[in-house]
């Protein structure tokens, strides 16, 4: 059956059965249309805000499939969304009537223990990487939920439990293979397409479809010391300043965060926290567990904890600890974040105020500590931009009823503006940014002075802005002053 697909200019084009059959003759993965079995399941992404219906899902099996999909998109001028783990908060990886280039079946991971390098296909999740890398006692710094995709997280930066010791995920990228808008498969590294390699480390999905990433890995675990202490949220006025003071003196081995959240009455949790609003303080020590004990001990002494779940734990389990709180498709999410050069008393007041007035139990006010190795990279070393943040404040709105969307989005935006107005605010982290916020001011705030170079690289590799469903960087004007973008 003919499918009607959206074009870049907002029109539509019909792709006939014959054209799809010709593609199917060589395409190794399935080409899924709304008429095919499995379509409903295939279009599901994490964020329940985006109940969208792509016109065609091209589930690729390898770079050749990706090349064919990109060529079809160019030939028919299709609007294209690119999906890996499907965790994008802004919903860019799915779009009504567009073609989705879906890498979620490309999840291979190969570890080279001698060189401490890990090669990861473009649709893998962090759970895939941890499973394979931990066989060799290695880890690539990734995110804190194992179902998140490697691709979106890496291309936008990437912070987790190891970032203060080993840097952002993108800082550990050694090479990437990417299908660009003209259908070429390129390899980008320090010595090949260096500009492109620079742009891929923070510049998002603007430059093509990454089919494989290569990362530097580090010895971590298999057992690490993991500290998780939950205090009553009402104790936060005492606990939060104590946490801040403690984090000020930490070695890079420790990555810590504080989170206002509400704990469900789950058998996975001690009864003392069931249905309670908590201030959860947590830390992971990236080094020998025995060294961690005296360093992490103070975390349990900032007040009277409701629960202290700290102890040695397999690194893989640490990485999966929060998964069940983020079920696919069941939460509606809208997040916004602000980098802060310091967590002054003014910032603490806002965090406390917002943390204690969250509109939904699943909403988080999340404060990861930054600094360490993240801050040692220069602004211009990667596209990521400003590295001066000592902390990040992320307002992660999550709720379940569509009728509550307007109120929750409004609350997150108000909170975001309060934090952004602080004198220590230094831009935003685009991986934690919801839809409708990505005007040019948003990308300028995130990329700062790197935006102009990114726009020039965009012009070189995607002059017509074919990859535009992302935190979009517009191609720079051509040297003659004319824009080539449609
Ligand atoms: P997708 O929705 O599949 O992709 C997001 C975007 O990335 C796409 O729109 C596209 O522009 C681009 N993209 C995806 N795949 C490719 C590819 N192969 N080639 C080119 N472009 C591509 N971030 C952190 O830094 N640390 C965390 O700990 C963390 N935890 C999270 C936990 C949850 C539950 C969620 C929902 C998000 C979390 N994030 C975290 C944010 C996360 O980094 C971003 O949402 C990221 O975009 C997710 O990547 P993905 O591949 O899963 O998403």
Keywords:
486 residues; alpha+beta; Uridine Diphospho-n-acetylenolpyruvylglucosamine Reductase, domain 2; Uridine Diphospho-n-acetylenolpyruvylglucosamine Reductase, domain 3; Vanillyl-alcohol Oxidase, Chain A, domain 3; 3 domains; eight-stranded antiparallel sheet; five-stranded antiparallel sheet; 15 helices; 27% helix; binds flavin-adenine dinucleotide
Walk me through this protein's architecture.
- It is a single chain.
- The chain has 486 residues and is α+β, with helices and mostly antiparallel strands.
- The protein has three domains: 3-102, Uridine Diphospho-n-acetylenolpyruvylglucosamine Reductase, domain 2; 109-219, Uridine Diphospho-n-acetylenolpyruvylglucosamine Reductase, domain 3; 223-432, Vanillyl-alcohol Oxidase, Chain A, domain 3, CATH 3.40.462.
- The protein has helices at residues 17-24, 39-42, 63-76, 126-134, 150-156, 163-166, 194-200, 236-248, 289-296, 315-320, 345-355, 373-376, 405-420, 440-447, 451-461, and strands at residues 3-6, 12-15, 31-32, 56-59, 80-83, 99-102, 109-112, 117-121, 138-139, 173-179, 185-189, 209-216, 218-219, 223-232, 254-263, 276-285, 307-308, 311-314, 332-340, 364-368, 391-399.
- The two termini are 30 Å apart.
- Flavin-adenine dinucleotide binds next to strand 5, helix 5 and strand 12.
